[in-house]
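Aim 2 progress update. The chain analyzed this quarter is reproduced below.
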Amino acid sequence: MSTRLYKIFCAILLSVLAVPAYAQSPDSARMKTIQTELNTIAVSYDKLPAKHKSLLDGYGRVLRLSEIINRLTAQSAHVSQADVQAVLQDDAAIPEAAGVATAVNDRRTDQQFSGFEGITQSETSTALCGNQAAVGFNDSGSELQSLFFGTGGLSFSGAAVSSDRGKTFHDLGFMNPGPNFSTFLLGDPVLSCSDANTFYYSQLVTGSISFTSTGVAFSRSTDGGNTWSDPVTAIAKDDSTHFIDKSWHAIDPSKPSRIYVSYTDFDTSGTSAGCPNQARVGIEVVVSTDGGQTFGSPIVIDDACGSDSAVQASHVAVTSHGKVYVAWERFNPTNTELRFTSFVPGGKPAPSVVVDQIVPGGAVIEEFNTSVALLLQGEFRDLVGIDLAVDRSHGPTDGNVYVVWDDGRNKSVPEFFSIFSDGTYNFTDVLFSRSTDGRHFSAAAQVNSDRQPTVGSGHDHFQPALAVDSSGSVAACWYDRRNDHENFQIERFCASSGNAGQQWAEHRVGSTQFAPLHGVDDLTNPNYMGDYDGLTSDFTGATRGFLGAFQVLTSGLNPDVKAHSF
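Predicted structure tokens:
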């Protein structure tokens, strides 16, 4: 990190420490607690197998912050108050270009902490009930705002709210982490709502909401997403032997107080019944029957035992009659599978079925920590590009379940810089499958309308999102590079189908083209540009259509969040 950035960070740290709520030195109880928790996590992370590290997402942010925190407290005494004022004086509004995408986050805060490094907003989830909408997103600026201006834990998450169905948004700043100093909200948000007043926000968490733990934090809003409660834990496990990652959640429309949360458990305890005396990665689900105030014991969906197998990226959805569907990826030693199961309230999960075998996109590149990463052209991560949606329309297609994923089976070229065993780069398309019974799935069909060229380079289409509205129409949105022959420039495309995905009407989201810039934000993984973006419809069923937020590099350099409705 640059000397200039150190000075800026330390200047703001001094201003925070001057507030009466804090101790009057860098060795305050709050800073000591934060340092201790972050350093403990870094030690536990080093125990994981390399393959598991490569699939573990949220804790990469903790490791980077643990390095920065230790330096901040050591250097804060060398900064003047004049540096503080220089950072905070610019409140000029930033104009937004006209277009079909609406600004979600407030861009004025992006240079609040540094004129040298970037601030990242990405990885979005959207909830819509009637005209009331809320968007959650990963936000490295929130991490700094909560560190320097908060009085409790830390937050890597932001939120914005709209009362006009996504035409305009108000940025709420960092998500409330609660009063405990050692609580760190890690992002990976998923939002939902049961009515125009009641919204829910789940995300990864580490620290001490209840005890020193890793888990999923669950927050509730009763005023349409404008203010949020202190988080409670949906699941919490010992952070010396567990890492909880990639959580998801869904509301039961037949009983809105019943909420399902799925997640991945990276487990090095060796005590799991499914993988005794072995490293384990498991997909689990917990259930709340009281609107997210308390949650029950974990339901195991799938176990991967040993260091050469893993599972990741579960998504959960609930039918209009309360049946639960779960989809996830399973990384076997020789292949990758998209798997699926279902269960009813109080019942056991059915034996899982394979929807399809996934051909991972991009190339597998060795990273400096000896793990490997799936990187697309431009060297950014495409970790898990899947989504799941269920039809709750009460019409002829009610109960249909749909899955979508990005897949590199249609086009491969030699990749001489890859350490991948067959030395190839796989260009991705968006694939789709449906089931009418939750057990048998249709053959994979392509959603994006363009085809990979037979000669020369191809184009990537990646990180698809999926939703079904009250009419039974299905929609998907994704990032798309078809309009750049060199496969660098990224745009947003969406498509909808009125006949259960048999045909799709596609459109480009205007004014969204950007290059895959990354590695300019020291608080995020240098290969990170987000792992997913959500798409939603009106949960109440009162209106038709879709709303989804996504990342755009607004100035060509700065990652921001915008929203698109159709």
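The helical segments are 3-17, 29-45, 50-55, 59-75, 81-88, 140-149. The CA atoms of residues 490 and 514 lie 5 Å apart. These observations will guide the mutagenesis experiments scheduled for the next reporting period.
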